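Next up, sample data:
>
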Amino acid sequence: MRKEYIMMVIASVLSICGTEALMAQQYKVGVCDWMILKRQKLGEFTLARQMGCDGIEMDMGGLGQREMFDNKMRNPQEAAHFKHVADSLDIEIGAVAMSGFYAQDLTKRDNYMALAEDCFDTMDRMGGTKVAFLPLGGCGNDWSADKVKRAEIVKRLHHIGEAAMARGKRVGIDTPLDAKGNLRLLKEIKSSGIAIFYKWQTIVENGLDVVKDIKTLGAKNICAIHASNTDGVWLRDDATLDVPKIKKTLDEMGWSGWLFVERSRDTTMVRNVKMNYSANVFFLKEIFNSNPAPAVMLDSAGRDPQYVKTIVGRSRKATDELGITWTPQGQNVLNIICNRYFKLNDIYSERDSLKKADKKLAEAQCDSRLYRSHYGFLADLSMYLTPQEIDKVKDVMTFDVVRVTYEAQCDMIPSLKDDEKQQIMAWLIEARELAIDAESSKKKHEVFGKYKGRINNYLARRGYDLTKEREKWYERVKARGGKL
């Protein structure tokens, strides 16, 4: 009996240890607030939430020629407000950054310890953040070979590290060095309060292998990671980074911690903050953490995979237009739109099957199902989108015919009165409601065609000579170098 009890205790301990190890082996994904244009702005937490982040890396504010950082969090009331908003949105402050040192030379700041302590105070006010970021970019590119300057950097980092360690924190430095160079530097600094805030971009730009470099540096020397490359393409499209292999390596090393997206913006849409950063966050969570399943599941079971792929691509045009494709919200909206296309296909397929027996009954049942499901589709979208955003989805699904036709009518007849413009728009919106349920692009355009005919008849009754208006319009368009 005693032996069985001992074995049970051992099994329980092993189970607990295994669970704790599993819980410790985790990755959290966030973004740098200065890169999403929200440096110390309350909106950073809402945006981070929308993008699916676990947290943010909060900057200390600009430095420039100031004596201290332009830090709002020095005010306890302001800091408490920020922390309250972050907590209410379940967004962590995973790190606090002194990004001002990207441009300012650490060795030329006599008050460097005051700046570091200001950062540590901010970390405490943000709920006890454990990691700070300190780039050495402002020291220049040759400091590592300059013995005098290197010695000064080492001395100052030692003091900063010791102060950090005394307050239960670590300062992650960003250097231009590879793993071997960083290991030598850490050995010189002689402080456990200093580690490497690892940056994929630096290693790629040096022409090195991130996986090999990480292994050489070792898990204990990495306090956080800037998991991105220079701007160009999104992480999922970056051929210079094998992210799944990096993840596997970190797993094997037993490392856990924060992955912050700093760059990797698509330069064709570099100003689209939400699209760029949500795409990279989504990819990292997909590889490192596995994104939580969307609340709305894709109704793809039993359907041809190529057909499903086509529908997903078609539906993504709407979420891309809204800039939400790579967000949790966007994944649900994408699936709702896809499922609508699947539903329409099912309704029309059933109609075609019933037509062989009773054409009239088939059409009646089809109309009934379209009517009922039409409002269900809009209700589903309303769970995630505003009325204006739902209109944008409808526009994408109907090839933006409402806008194109309305603008063409106004351009063709500049003398249209306000009430006439309102009537034209009302009919086009009515046509759009019918067109989103049409079975093909041809049928959608046929719906609009009928309403365009109604609009032309209306304008003719109002005394417009459409033939002459159209001829004058052609001439105006031709004169400004356009085509119809």
Q: What stands out?
A: The two ends are 92 Å apart (CA to CA). The longest helix spans residues 328-355. Residues 222 and 263 are 19 Å apart (CA to CA). Confidence is low (pLDDT under 50) at residues 5-25.
